[in-house]
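Quick one, probably user error.
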């Protein structure tokens, strides 16, 4: 099964050094020998010809806001709608979670409650899971057909399921402690409050549920279902 990765942003060099590029991070997250991958840097206006270029699609995180005026946003939204219409499975992570919701009629906003950084506790279908976050924007209005299947105290709409079409998640199951450490070192200064940075550093050594979430996303790619 070929997974098309739609790269919506550029990872900082420190993260690439620690974790590899987007293809490596997502292939490790999914941990499936049955998948092959091709990445299109949509943030640089590199797009596939259409949904038929892959069997399933994954949209990455990004420093950009889904609601911002960037050249790649409108064609990416149209591609999302085309993928949805094609019935190919679609997964979104962080920005990907947000842009899918927006493209299908939902609302994304800069959350006035500030940032979520580092490991957080999520309720995923009634199960507690520890996953890493790095965001301020949130999906605030669900599009038609979206069902909330995950949340946290900070982020109400942390995971959404579009039956038979898409599964999207606000935190980053591809980010491990090395990823968060790299972001804290290179991206947080002057942006993320120091108290949040301190808490995130204190949580770097804690275990996470990345492998479990990665397996669930892989299962969705194969079956287009949650179970």
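Nope, works fine. Designed sequence:
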């Amino acid at each position: 099964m070929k997974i098309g990765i739609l790269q919506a942003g550029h990872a900082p060099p420190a993260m690439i050094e620690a974790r590899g590029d987007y293809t490596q991070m997502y292939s490790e997250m999914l941990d499936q020998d049955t998948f092959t991958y091709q990445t299109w840097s949509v943030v640089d206006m590199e797009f596939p010809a259409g949904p038929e270029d892959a069997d399933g699609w994954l949209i990455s995180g990004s420093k950009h806001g889904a609601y911002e005026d960037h050249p790649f946003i409108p064609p990416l939204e149209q591609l999302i709608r085309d993928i949805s219409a094609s019935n190919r499975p679609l997964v979104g992570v962080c920005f990907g979670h947000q842009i899918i919701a927006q493209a299908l009629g939902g609302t994304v906003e800069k959350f006035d409650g500030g940032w979520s950084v580092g490991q957080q506790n999520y309720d995923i279908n009634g199960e507690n899971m520890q996953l890493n976050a790095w965001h301020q924007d949130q999906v605030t209005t669900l599009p038609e057909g979206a069902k909330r299947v995950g949340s946290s105290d900070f982020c109400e709409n942390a995971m959404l399921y579009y039956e038979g079409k898409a599964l999207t998640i606000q935190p980053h199951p591809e980010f491990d402690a090395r990823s968060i450490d790299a972001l804290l070192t290179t991206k947080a200064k002057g942006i993320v409050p120091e108290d949040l940075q301190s808490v995130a550093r204190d949580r770097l050594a804690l275990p996470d549920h990345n492998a479990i979430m990665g397996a669930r996303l892989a299962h969705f790619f194969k079956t287009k279902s949650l179970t």
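Residues 73-86 form the longest helix (14 residues).
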